Amino acid sequence: MVRGLGGLETAIMDRMWAIRQPASVRDVLEHLQKDRVIAYTTVMTVMDKLHTKGLLKRQPVGRAYIYEAVSSKEAYTAEVMRESLANSGNRAATLVHFLERLSAEEASALEAALQVYPPRERRS
């Protein structure tokens, strides 16, 4: 089950998605310390939890780990959206409410996405 992320989890994952390469806890800590006071052990604990949740993979390097995002931010977001829809109870009504709230820019992006990847009924 995909679950939403907490504030620090989001900050860490945003950093991992932005750099698109393996990073140590220290690398992430140094970035986060630009905006907040935070302890190394806090970042290490949260990155371990993100690994347990399946969002980060890790490889031991010496006495530490190097972490890497398992998927892109877009793929994660799509999975959260898909699961939310699956758990909504009434998928059609949920989609209608979603579509009603789209901005013109979001509606255009949806139309463009459907041209690239049409629904299953329209695929060859």
3D structure, described in words:
Helix content is 57%, strand content 11%. The mean pLDDT is 91. The chain is mainly α and 124 residues long. Strands 1-3-2 form a 3-stranded antiparallel sheet. The protein has helices at 7-19, 25-32, 40-52, 73-86, 91-100, 104-116, and strands spanning 23-24, 56-61, 64-69. A hairpin with a 2-residue loop joins strand 2 and strand 3. Helix 1 (7-19) packs across helix 3 (40-52). The protein starts with 6 loop residues before the first helix and ends in an 8-residue tail after the last helix. It is built from 6 helices and 3 strands.
Short description:
Helices cover 57% and strands 11% of the residues. By secondary structure, it is mainly alpha-helical.
End-to-end C-alpha gap: 31 Å
Unreliable stretches: none
Largest sheet: 3 strands, antiparallel
pLDDT averaged residue by residue: 91
Rg, Cα atoms, Å: 18 Å
* Share of helical residues: 55-70%
Q: Per DSSP, what share of the residues sits in E-state strands of 2 or more residues? A: 5-15%
**Per the principal axes of the C-alpha atoms, what is the gross shape?**
elongated
Across the major sheet, the strand order is 1-3-2
Structural class label: mainly alpha
Q: How many helices does DSSP assign?
A: 6
Number of strands: 3
What is the element string, with H for helices and E for strands? Answer: HEHHEEHHH
